[in-house]
Every structure is written in C-alpha cells, then in structure tokens.
Amino acid sequence: MTSTNDIRRGFLDYFASQGHAIVPSAPLVPQNDPTLMFVNAGMVPFKNVFTGLESRPYVTATSSQKCVRAGGKHNDLDNVGYTARHHTFFEMLGNFSFGDYFKEQAIHHAWTLLTDVWGIPAEKLTATVYHTDDEAFGLWTKYLPEERIIRIATKDNFWAMGDSGPCGPCSEIFYDHGDHIFGGPPGSPDEDGDRFVEIWNLVFMQYEQDANAIVGELPKKSIDTGMGLERVAAVLQGVHDNYDTDTFKALIAASTSLTGTDAEGPRRASHRVIADHLRSSGFLVADGVLPANEGRGYVLRRIMRRAMRHAHLLGAKEPLMHRLVPALVAEMGAAYPELVRAQPLIEATLRQEETQFRKTLDKGLKLLDEATAGMVEGATLAGETAFRLYDTFGFPYDLTEDALRERGLSVDRAGFDAAMAEQKRAARAAWKGSGAKASDDLWFDIAEQSGSTEFIGYSVDVGEAEVV
Ligand code: ATP
Ligand code: MG
Ligand code: MG
Ligand code: MG
C-alpha cells in the first residue's frame, strides 16, 4: 500500500521531473491577503504571482499546501464526520503555470500522473468542463469517451479570483468508487452522494474580469490546479472513505485506544470529528493561532470545543485531545517539522482549553437535554436557549447544532442572532448609562465593523476571494 506520505512525495516528484519548482507550504494564516481567514487553496500564496504584482524565479511550481475550510466562503465544518470526503484541515496538492503552459499540458499532466504513474484505471475517471469550453472538451476526448466528459453550466466550473482580476473555466476530475455507493455523476440529481468523488480541479485562468464582467483575454494565461491529498490517498489505497486511509486510521486507533471504545455505530462520527479536528487544531496552533473569543482564534476554539464534546460523548473522563498529539506528530511531523517544534505548545493549549471547557460542558449538556426532552425529530430548539448555552456555558453555536443533529433536531438561528443582538444592545445601553461620551458609540461601531466581536467566529464572511 502506498502511504499518504509517499503519495505527497510522488506528486511533488512528478511535477519536479517536469520542471516545476517545489515550493513549501505557506502557513495557514494568509500572509498576503487580509480579507481571507485561512489559506483555503493551493493558489492562495501565489495570488500576486498570477496577477503579475509579484515575480518569482520560476514560471511553473508545485506544492502541497495546508488548507483550512472552516469559515467564510468555503466552510466544510458541518460536513466533517458525516461525509467520506470532507475535512476542516486538508492538504491540497497543486501544479501551477504562471503564463507558461496552458490547458493542453495541464490536462496531459493530470492524466499522465493519475493513469500512467499511479495506475488508476481510465474507466474509473470522469471529467467535467465548463459548458462553453469546447477547447477543454476537445482536449479531453483524447483520453475519455465523450459520455464521460460532462458539460456543467454552474459556477462550480467557473473560477474567479474576485469581482475583478483573473478568471476562467475549470475542469474537475471525478473518481467513481462504484455502484455499491449512493450517488450519481456530476451534474446529475444525485451528484451530492459519495459515489463520484471530485479528486482534482484544474483551473484555466484565461480571462480578465472587471466588476464581474469579462473584459478580455489575459495576456499570460495561467494554470492553477488543486487535488485533495486525502481523497487521492483513499483512491490509491483502495478505500472509499478518506477516514479509512493510513493517516486517519492511525489517528482513530489512538482515540479508540485512549477512550477504550470502538468506532462503530454512533461512535463512528465522534472518532472522525476528533481525528479531523485534532489535525486542524494542531496545525493552526503550530502556525500561531490560539483559541480566543474573536476572529481566527474563535474559529479554532469552535473546532476544539466541538472535538471536546465528542470526546465527552465517548465517555472520556479526563481531557483527551492533548494525549492524541503524539499520534498526529508521528503521522505528519516528518512532512511538517513545524508540528514537531510546536508539539509542547499544541499539547498545552489543548489541555488548557479542554480543562476549562469541561467545567461548563456537563452543565451545558444537561441544560440541552432538559430543553430538548420530549422534542420529536424535525423540531427546532429556541434560539434563546442556544444563546444561553453560548453565553453561559461557552457552547459555540455550531456545537449545539452538531449535538442536535444526531437526533434530527435543528436550532432557530434567527432567534439566536436576535438574542445576541439584544445582548449587544443592552451592553451598549449600559455603557451609555455610565455617563460615557457619545464618542463611545463610535467605538462600538468600529468594533463591529472590524469584526472584533465574539460573533465573527461563525458568521464571518469577509468577502474572501473565490479560490480553486
Ligand atoms: P467539493 O465539491 O467536494 O466540496 P470543492 O469543489 O469545494 O470540493 P475545490 O475548491 O475545487 O473543492 O478544491 C480542490 C480540491 O481540494 C478538490 O477537488 C478536493 O480534492 C479537495 N478538497 C476540497 N475541499 C476539501 C475538504 N473539505 N476536505 C478534503 N479535500 C477537499
Ligand atoms: Mg466544497
Ligand atoms: Mg466541487
Ligand atoms: Mg472543485
């Protein structure tokens, strides 16, 4: 079996052999883009190279980029534990051409690596193209029968850096895991199933956009691709589910052994959430993010606390997450030395957060049980109760949602937002009542605009640019 570490290496080696510079992953906190919460695609560190603002000593590059999708435009947090293919933290393998090769070579490289180098049977692959992209359609006919090249008219197959700047059609490659799994090909009514899994997205940066309208062709057409390492590892290891790959099996083995539970039935999702959130927490702390009540730190706190509730569900009587860090470092420390360096900090941070959260977790869960006793499937929890759980017991909104999901209950989001707004209003009134000057109003406004309230953690949509 090829290990995930070997697959990462194999990808980078293939593109290096084709003249690409191997570029190490950038940190998860974006260095060149204040509008983005976390790096969420391989192209992010190269944005300025694509627009021409920055030049580098190479025209083609390859990387395995750490990504987090747990907030903003790409938020996969709610999928984790419940789909076979989503993580909050994952690695995006990519090859990039900055005005060098274009569509034909990009498709050729993808096909050669998947089928020749890695030996994936051609009949397992399907490609999508943007509906008007006859050029890409034509290029794919060299490799695939026409019925497995699917024209898609939605935004899924058209990429743009933002309202202005480079944009262009994309072509996604799907792997068919077989008809024993529910799901239909892309573009079909059942496409959201897990049978056809998108493994690789090829973006053809072709046009220049201004205020959302295409204004011309780019002088230097470019390529940006992204492939989920965990998804291709599942394919190459002959499993359907990312959580059955070597890396995740090792992490789940650690949590089953430390909790003395198996990963069957209702415990399956818990172990998956714990393994996934261990990775995102560990990598975020290693890149300098610490739990906080606002901004990036609040996204991290939500992730950590959600994992901690699942540890509690599994019956862990003591803080668990920090004891899993050695398994994470054993799996991923060689590829990411920052994890080894930060190990003591990751452990201490997880331990402290879990110790603190445990003080209120039990009481909060009890309140939640009482509030939902007698509620039947399909019912909705009052927003005010969710707000009390947040305010008094430190339950992030999505933790409450996650806790109710297993029982088919939902939360009244609007009611929660209203309770939050009311608390802010009251705080503001109290502030005014203390004889403060009118300029304090301004302070509140600035605080809200700059997003420095605890609220930003989960409502953040900072208008980040669309990425791969
Ligand atoms: P999906 O439709 O499955 O959510 P996507 O279209 O949002 O994927 P892209 O933005 O095209 O994904 O990212 C490029 C590649 O990164 C995908 O083809 C996939 O292999 C991988 N990927 C995207 N999101 C995740 C995730 N949350 N966890 C693991 N891999 C991911
Ligand atoms: Mg997605
Ligand atoms: Mg997709
Ligand atoms: Mg995609």
TrEMBL record:
Record carries keyword Aminoacyl-tRNA synthetase: yes
EC number(s) recorded for this UniProt protein: 6.1.1.7
Domain Alanyl-transfer RNA synthetases family profile: 2-468
Catalytically driven reaction(s): tRNA(Ala) + L-alanine + ATP = L-alanyl-tRNA(Ala) + AMP + diphosphate
Keyword Protein biosynthesis on entry: yes
Domain remark text: Consists of three domains; the N-terminal catalytic domain, the editing domain and the C-terminal C-Ala domain. The editing domain removes incorrectly charged amino acids, while the C-Ala domain, along with tRNA(Ala), serves as a bridge to cooperatively bring together the editing and aminoacylation centers thus stimulating deacylation of misacylated tRNAs.
Similarity field: Belongs to the class-II aminoacyl-tRNA synthetase family.
Protein name in UniProt: Alanine--tRNA ligase
